[in-house]
Write a structure and sequence with these properties.
The structure is a single chain. The chain has 4 helices and 7 strands; from the N terminus they run βααβαβββββα. A 7-stranded antiparallel beta sheet has the order 1-7-6-5-4-3-2. Helix 1 crosses helix 2.
């Protein structure tokens, strides 16, 4: 059995209600505001997009360095407004993204974990060698998320 490798962990308190923060990691249109990679998520039908049931399959279309990449994804866990877990499969292996949210007084704690189950030794070594670069990039993305969320709350 191949082992899951943690690539990145982001843990931050956000000055916003949990429902607002959850919208920004759940709603595709809001995700596109802060996530510079996401072009769209393509669902088999509109009902799948609306229902958010574990097992729902979709294709994630991303732009990485001027190259469009389509990845098969599946919603593994969904507990609004506390948890979303998505598995995406590529030749490199299975990428796992976890969004974990909790209330802390008037703030929301957002924990994002990005990990991979590498498909082979080459990708396992590549992950170990270059995880630091991914960490820098992901941290920028999630800082953008915080800005968008906190600006929305200020506008109320």
């Amino acid at each position: 059995m191949k082992k899951e490798m943690l690539v990145f962990r982001f843990d931050e308190l956000i000055n916003a209600p949990i429902d607002v923060v959850f919208d920004y990691v759940d709603d595709d249109e809001k995700i596109k505001l802060w996530n510079t990679l996401l072009i769209e998520n393509v669902y088999e039908n509109e009902e799948d997009r609306i229902q958010c049931k574990p097992g729902t399959k979709f294709k994630t279309v991303q732009m990485i360095e001027k190259k469009t990449i389509t990845v098969d994804s599946v919603l593994v866990e969904y507990e609004a407004p506390h948890k979303i877990i998505i598995h995406s499969t590529t030749k490199e292996g299975v990428s796992i993204t976890k969004y974990l949210l909790s209330r802390e007084h008037t703030q929301t704690r957002l924990i994002v974990e990005s990990s991979i189950i590498p498909s082979n030794l080459f990708y396992k070594l590549s992950t170990k060698m270059f995880a630091w670069a991914g960490k820098i990039f992901y941290e920028e993305q999630y800082k953008r998320l915080i800005e968008y969320v906190e600006n929305e709350v200020e506008d109320y």
